[in-house]
């Protein structure tokens, strides 16, 4: 079993922030959890609003707890409205920006949650951050 390291988490954060800068996003917050759901890293850019850490952690936790990206969950909402409604209460909503982090064998090492801009941009930055660390996610 391979654990996500602090060095890898910081590399994901660096790549995510870099993507946000290149895409002219609002200030981002990046939360990274290990495969057991414990926080490894939480970083906020200057100007990131007060609720962003809680939202980023919730996005990462939701992806990890349910084994799929928050985008996939949101897309499944029409098929399972009662389930998704319950998840919305437990995880502060299902919106894009929470992704699983995997190694090259498809092993889930943890999850990242990004909050700060609209959900599609949060997710795009998270994907770039994961790629920057030479890791993988289901979204690419």
From TrEMBL:
Pfam families cross-referenced by the UniProt entry: HbpS-like
UniProt-listed InterPro entries: GlcG_carb_metab_protein, PduO/GlcC-like, PduO/GlcC-like_sf
Record's signal peptide: none
Record-given protein name: GlcG protein
Organism lineage string: Bacteria, Pseudomonadati, Pseudomonadota, Gammaproteobacteria, Vibrionales
Gene: BB3727
């Amino acid at each position: 079993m391979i654990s996500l390291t602090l060095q890898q988490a910081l590399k994901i954060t660096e790549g995510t922030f870099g993507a946000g800068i290149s895409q002219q996003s609002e200030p981002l917050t990046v939360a990274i959890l290990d495969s057991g759901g414990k926080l490894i890293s939480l970083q906020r850019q200057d100007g990131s609003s007060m609720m962003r850490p809680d939202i980023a952690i919730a996005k990462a936790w939701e992806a990890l707890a349910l084994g799929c990206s928050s985008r996939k969950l949101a897309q499944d909402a029409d098929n399972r409205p009662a389930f998704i409604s319950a998840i919305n209460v437990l995880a502060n909503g299902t919106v894009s920006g929470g992704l699983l982090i995997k190694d090259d064998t498809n092993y889930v090492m943890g999850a990242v949650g990004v909050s700060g801009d609209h959900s599609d941009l949060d997710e795009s930055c998270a994907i770039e951050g994961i790629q920057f660390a030479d890791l993988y996610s289901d979204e690419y």
